[in-house]
Amino acid sequence: MKRSTFIENETACESCDWVNPIPPMQENERLRCSRCKHVILSIHANSAKQLLANSSAALMLFFLSLTYEFLGFTSNGISQQISLLDCINALLIEHFTVLGAVVSITLIILPIIYLVSVLLLSLALLTKTKNERAARWLLLSIRSIEPWLMVDVFLLGGLVALVKLTSLAQVSLGISFWAFTAYTILLLRTVCYVDKRWLWNQLFGASAALDPVSGSARSQDLIGCQFCGALNHQTDHMCSRCHHVIASRKTSSLHRTLALLISASILYVPANFFPIMNTTFLGTIEHSTIIGGVMLLWALKSYPVALVILIASVLVPIAKILSLFWLCWQYHFNTDLPAIKKQKIYHLTELVGRWSMVDIFVVAILSALVQLGSVMNIVPGLAALSFCAVVIITMLAAMSFDSRLIWDKSEE
Fold first, then answer.
1. Alpha helices in 222-338 (DSSP H)
2. Cα-only R_g, the chain
3. Cα separation of 307 and 295, whole Å?
4. Residue 322: what pLDDT?
5. Which residues, other chains included, contact 93 with Cβ-Cβ below 8 Å and sequence gap of 6+?
6. What is the pLDDT of residues 233-290, one digit of tens each?
7. Interior/surface letters 344-353, b for 16+ CB within 10 angstroms, e for the rest
8. For residues 224 and 26, is the Cβ–Cβ distance under 8 A?
9. pLDDT at residue 305, rounded to an integer
10. Half-sphere exposure (Cβ direction) of 48: Cα atoms closer than 13 Å
11. What sign results for the dihedral spanned by CA atoms 355, 351, 204, 248?
């Protein structure tokens, strides 16, 4: 028989604010919100051991991927090899410091912090020893970092870069590429095993029992913590378990979301008007826009890759901006569309937004790899910085939007 691994009282759904009682749960069980069906809690078998194994193996493979050659490029008898760090150095050398900083943060710094945090927390669980202050900081950090992990997006960018280069020269895959692929898989496995409510429960015990009834937390003068899931009284300004600042709803959620969306809309114009990449071949400079890149891939009969770039770099940013504008509009001018469908639109918008960074990673890889002096070289264009800003700002807009407002309007 499976043993009980989780004992908690109740929690408020982070998506709709509905109070859900939590029964004693066992391994390989999942709890969904009774109102919006959002996954509240997932209990995995041997979670602590899985977290330790996957995070430690991912860290080793990551440092291995920094050591060897990532990609090789040969054209007209001239060869060029790059490592992962060369992708960042290329942006810094071409005076795209901000772009280089974004790539280094999302590709190296944040994943390392995330994996080290998970590794330390899993060790604390297995050894049953912890420093409470450090454990709280680590738990809060992995909650904040997770949306910005873009290792899988970078790997897709590497595959797109390969397709673009195969028509120009011979491309080889280094040891680092395969190590990075395995590292990406292990990082994704680590993320899948991380459940914030389970970790807080195992390290700090169950939250205080407040005996709420069925309904939203706000209607009962309660606040559900968005970080650890504990219920708190409306008068509390800090969560009783994780000590993070809490509020019934995100402060000025709609105003901040709208301000960010307007900024993204303005920046999206130069992102498509100016070239995202400049290619010099035998003294001739060719400027490539995002749409131009899609058309080039289509002309080379790389239809799947052309569709990936079209969807990720053109359709997704537009759809994300429009859908968030529409959700903000729905709060003031509510329609008969069920709240659960609006919530699904929001979660889909939040999920796909980061994949638009694939074009930025393609430019970073090509800028590092194709540096053959007077024969051929590729450098980022002005649109790269604008488009990168669009992706980041739309992600921040999605995070600023409080999905619980959708359900508040439906209750009214």
1. 253-273, 290-299, 303-309, 316-332
2. 23
3. 10
4. 94
5. none
6. 888 889 888 888 888 888 889 999 999 999 999 999 998 888 887 777 666 677 778 8
7. ebbeebbebb
8. no
9. 75
10. 15
11. positive
On whether the CB atoms of residues 379 and 276 are closer than 8 A, the answer is: no
Q: What is the pLDDT of residues 20-62, one digit of tens each?
A: 988 887 888 888 999 999 999 888 888 899 999 999 999 999 9
Specify the residue for token string 């190590």. Answer: 179
For the record, the structure tokens of 252 come out as: 């000025």
Amino acid, single-letter form, for residue 341: K
Tokens 């940013």 found at: 317
**Residues 178/183/184/190 CA torsion (nearest 10 deg):** 160
Q: By the 8 A CB rule, do 49 and 58 touch?
A: no
CA distance linking residue 305 with residue 311, whole number of Å: 10
pLDDT at 1 over 60: no
Which pLDDT score, from 0 to 100, does residue 281 have? Answer: 66
d(CA 365, CA 157): 8
Which residue, among 258, 203, 228, 192, has the nearest Cα to 45 in the 3D structure?
Answer: 192
List the single range of 33-42, 98-107, 160-169, 381-390 with lowest mean pLDDT: 160-169
Count CB neighbours of 225 within 10 A: 28
How far is Cα 220 from Cα 201, in angstroms, rounded to an integer?
A: 23
**Tokens, residue 314:** 């053109």
Residue 308 has pLDDT above 50, yes or no: yes
pLDDT at 85 over 90: no
- Determine contact, residues 323/125, Cβ cutoff 8 Å: no
Contacts of residues 222-226 at CB distance under 8 Å and 24 or more positions apart, as own/partner, are: 222/12, 222/19, 223/12, 223/247, 223/248, 224/11, 224/12, 224/13, 224/14, 224/17, 224/19, 226/14
Compute the average pLDDT of residues 400-407: 91
According to DSSP, the residues that pair with 245 across neighbouring strands are 238
